[in-house]
Amino acid sequence: MEYRAPRGTFDVLPKDQAYWSYVESTAFATAQRFGYHRIDTPVFEDTTLFARGVGTDTDVVQKEMYTFDDRGGDSITLKPEGTAPICRAYIEHGMKNLPQPVRLFYVTPVFRYERPQAGRLRQHHQFGVEAIGDASAQVDAEVIALGWSYLTALGLCGTALKINSIGDPVCRPGYLDELRAYYKDHLSEMCADCRARFHRSPLRLLDCKKDSCQRFAEEAPRSVDHLCSDCQDHWTVVVDLLGRLTAVHPEFNYHVDHRLVRGLDYYTRTVFEFHPPEEGSQSAILSGGRYDGLIEQIGGDPTPGIGFGSGIERVILNLRRQEVPLPDAPIPDAVLVHAGDEAARETFRLSAELRAAGHTVVVAPAGRSVRSQMRYADSLGARYALILGDRELSQNVATLKLLKNGGGQLELPLDAAAIAELFDRQ
């Protein structure tokens, strides 16, 4: 039997790790520069956390969750998104007693049973941030600015922001009535999913990617025209602050997309997505919004929040498309080449001492000729080959050969401190 990675998953091979390290280190540095702190939550949670928080009528809960009963009979779900677990942790650990807002970031695997395609996998990874405990529009703008700073720090060009306000429980019911009234006469021409959404989640009618449904969304009532006074005030400040960000960074651009709603029930007011220049039905590389009712919905006190998630695989796909250069990968200071059994044993000791001194060294494979070991050192891009043989051992020296810039070699005392000192000077 030939085993393969499960459908919708993949192995991150050593040759691809540079992208992952680059994205994660950029994410961490950007979040910390904005004053956010790392948090990690379990890969699985109680199923009801997502049923109550994400919404039983959403596609995520109805179609996409990996849910099972564990050996104790409890219903467990592999996390399909990152926000609800963060909010659960906020409640469980009494974070309401910390200075608000609590600013958090995370990197986590996410699991959804979907049809695999480019940029959409059954297991993918998200970088996300959450700012919990502040309802102000200033925090909305801060989270959006953080997302944009992260994408630009990666070197991605032409990324554009789409933004909308979908109101709150005060004004949204009236807007939903307007949507249903508009779509009622078009249902027979729409897809089966949209006919089901008409009753259980009418906002999602605007979000359908099928051509037969998109044409109706263009003429649908706009949420920003139905905001209550509080939501309108909030929206006005968000737009004003984004204009101020544009004044500082002329390359930052955004537009109001009246069809943007997001796919989870907990969103309120501000919702947003960042898209690269090359768009498609699954092109968003960073998405989020405000979720002021979520913490109360899962058992906490009324607490506002806003955040985003960014799929790392999709970001890497765009880094490759735009041919963004990565920082040079670290290379070994030296490959230790050895001839003879005693030299091999001495090489092992020397390599341990050099690593303890903070240097990256690799011992060439045993049982190969010196010439073969030198080719191996070249293949790793090492700066030096450090050669030990019978002659070197008898004279208590090591031969150091420069592998770049025309070669050249010298002899050093067979002393790890002296060799490490030379590495430090180069």
CATH topology of the largest domain, what is it called? BirA Bifunctional Protein, domain 2
Separation of the first and last Cα atoms = 51 Å
Strand content: 15-25%
> Please, how many domains?
2
Overall geometric form: elongated
Q: Bin the helical content.
A: 25-40%
Task: State the helix count.
Answer: 15
Q: What's the architecture of the largest domain in CATH terms?
A: 2-Layer Sandwich
Oligomer: single chain
What is the strand and helix layout of this fold?
Elements: H1 17-33, E1 37-38, E2 44-46, H2 47-53, H3 59-64, E3 67-69, E4 75-78, H4 83-92, E5 102-111, E6 123-132, H5 137-153, E7 160-165, H6 172-183, H7 192-200, H8 211-218, H9 229-248, E8 254-256, E9 268-275, E10 286-290, H10 294-297, E11 305-311, H11 312-321, E12 334-338, H12 341-356, E13 361-363, H13 370-379, E14 384-388, H14 390-395, E15 397-402, E16 409-413, H15 416-425
Parallel strand pairs: 1-5, 7-8, 12-13, 12-14
Antiparallel strand pairs: 2-4, 3-4, 5-6, 6-11, 7-9, 9-10, 10-11, 14-15, 15-16
Helix pairs in contact: 1-5, 1-11, 5-9, 12-15
